[in-house]
User: What shape does this take?
Amino acid sequence: MTKQQKGSCFFQTAIKKMLSSTTNRHFKIFLSSLTLFSITITGYSQELPSISGQYSATALKEVIVDIEKQTNFKFYFLDQWVHGISITKTYENEDINTALQTVLENTSLNFHFLESQKRIILLENTIVYDELPNGFFGSEEVIVANSNTQTKATAPPPTFYSANTQTKRNYDVAKIGKSDPNHLQESYRLTGRAINSKTGEPIQDLAIRVKTSNQITVTDANGNYNLQLPAGYNVLSIRAMGIAATDREIIMFNNGNLDVLMEEGLQQLDEVVVEADAFKNVEDAITGSEQIDSEESKNIPLVLGERDILSVAKALPGISSAGEGAMGLNVRGGKTDQNLVLLDDAVIYNPQHFFGIFQALNPFTTKGVDIYKGAIPVEFGGRLSSVFDIRTKNGNVEKFSGEGSIGPVTGNLALEIPLEKEKSSLVVGGRGAYADWILRSLDDESLRNSNASFFDGIVKYHNKINDKNEVKATAYYSRDAFSITSDSLYNYDNRLFSVRWDHRKSVKTNSALIVDNSNYGFGIDFDGDTNTDFKLDYSINETELKYKLRTSINDKNTLDYGGSAKYYSVNPGSIEPDGSESNVIELTIDNEQALEAALFIGDEITFNEKLSVNLGVRYAFFASLGEATQRTYEEGMPKNESTVQDTIAYSSNENIKTYGGPEARISTRYLFTPDFSVKASLNNSYQFLHTLSNNTTVSPIDTWKLSDLNIEAQKGYQASLGLYKNFKENEYELSIEGYYKKMENVLDFKTGANLFLNENVETQILQGDGKAYGVEFLLKKKSGDLNGWLSYTYSRSLYRFDSEFSEERINNGEFFPSNFDKPHDVSVITNYRFTKRYSLSTNFVYQTGRPITYPVGTFRFNNADFVAFSDRNEFRIPDFYRLDLGLNIEGNHKKNKLAHSFVTISVYNVLGRNNPYSVFFVTDDGEVKALQSSIFSVPIPSITYNFKF
Assistant: This one.
């Protein structure tokens, strides 16, 4: 018997075994008349019949029946292979071979002619050969896919796997891709997403290992993974903490996709905890990045028992604030306006309530935050210091659930509502303050006589339409209203929405289309005893369109690329009289408009197991637009009323001034051992948006200003170098990272500046140089009864404003400390678990006192007394330190309960330290006296009840 005849006999046997239990009519007829045959793939010896037809979303089975009627061929297939497939094609006298190729091109089906019997066999994924490899006979395995006899000798051999039907499988064997005899390869790429089957959320840091080769990959923040696998049979071992362990059998016929739905699972471990992301801090090529899960804030005692990921962020190295109760965060010596804070892709301008004491984010709808303070990913831009990428949860797609808390100041509630099982859900969260008693406990008398309230709400819709498309939409609103004195009511609000469409374009490419809008505004209503009542307001609005893609080219290169465009509209402020008796003169500052755009591309390159590099370039562009009126000033002279040269009027959307240029993003990691690496990065960036403030600390009524003809864009350059080491089977993480940052055109103000409602605010502003440098140390214990971290930062933040003119020079043109320069910053977070239900948490903070300008003497001139001040920020207020304690009590862990509870009993500032918020000076009987204002000068106890159902 020839080899070809043996192949034909084998094919008969294989088909009989495969179809022994089928009742398919076509296959039974075929099986009863099966004889020795020759299979032709690339052609047909007789003249092929042609077909005609117009099909519009026609079921594939109906198309096949129509082809059978037009020709003398019969088809053989299993019904489940064609179920749910529809065809939209038009044919006019097309030969059947060409027609079938186009009919089946987007399916997993191949076809083969049986020349002598005028039959066409459909096979799922596979192709059929008339030759078999040497040594095949004698084996009792069943062929699944083979290689083409006409393929070159280097093509992979046929693929086999055990056909033992006695094997118990939790999942069917997954067949990936469609065999193509003209493009056979030894390996193919598998991509997909890991999704929590209960909540519908992507699973990050899930370890996927190929059992035959020990090749491993880890899912990213969106649950995506990709692997290059050998053609044929493979077994994937999928593991993560809190997820039921799963093995998946797959057969690779071509490149393809496999999304894995994972079930939650609990395992009781004795001593060793295995985590999928155990080496993440060492292996990532990105420097200066941090990740905080919202659950991490649960066991950290914060003011009044509130969970707050932004306060947790301040306990990490390189991140601080100007003081207790100050709004905004300072990252690596940068100003608060140099941070890009995103909530589900949309900018949130003021993410804090109540003078910065609480975050303006519902902790039960917030999933976590990724913080980039060193190497910023290439898709982000517009700020010099950092990115806070805050993500909300996807709702539970299985059942109605919720979580909430009741505390002494706020109440929180979040509901997760399934809309369509396993596909879509809605998250609704609300949060508000219901007491002003905290203000009455403060030292400052004016604050004790004040009142404040706030609330925030969020709605998120999530729909996994199919394996290739997913839509998310978020709407958010927050509002604060407070009265510091009896005659003034202040209010500010954030409003944003975003819509994101994630689309899998191909096996290798994922895309995201994002549309978002953000608005921030504040107002002041003054109602005094004199005729000066007024209403004042300010707002900034931006709308963005962004499209980004990620393509896995091969095992060594992954591209991120795309573009964005953003439109700004700023109302710089207006004031109007409140009431007919008010003497206030109405004033409105002209609106500002601008366009900001960017194109970016980056490549994540893996040279080998040790060396990984992220290279990227981003081109940023900004155009200030009319309608506007701008002044020009004499070249080389101070900007003031006496140096004005001309006043230029710009029409609507006319270009006033453009800024921008290329931004480099370079980050590299070298792995000395699996648990020890060195990383370095270098990047530069532009910032076109600035805050105007002459307050010592940031306030909610600071205004944002766009770059224009007279205020230039800021520029920043940063280099960093770090060492990362894990110890004791990854129980401990240690990192030491140093950085140096240089800044240009940073803003400050002239002495006595009037910044708000100033039509020519550039005359009050200075632009100069800045530099910041430091070393950050972090030691973290991740597991065990005692866990937490110790962070220490030594850093300096310095500014210089130099000019030949004294009115534009500060401290004789020398570098001086910024308002938030704090050389030493120590944080210690600990949590000790006594039992599964009881734990004790501590939070200790120490910081160098921030800089301040002191009066150093008095003098008399023209019969008037004057105060002489020191150089700006020459002195410091006393150092800050605080200890907080918290006792955490979890409810019992019975499964069948209406709700699971968690109680936190905490004491904020347990030592009663009278930390200064600010130091100010008054003249009393001709003597200058220093007074100190504190926010929390006594211990603040609280009890918060948390529940989950």
User: Anything to note?
Assistant: The chain has two domains: 3-131, 289-948. The longest helix spans residues 3-18. The mean pLDDT is 82. Helices lie at 3-18, 25-32, 60-70, 79-82, 96-103, 280-283, 309-313, 445-448.
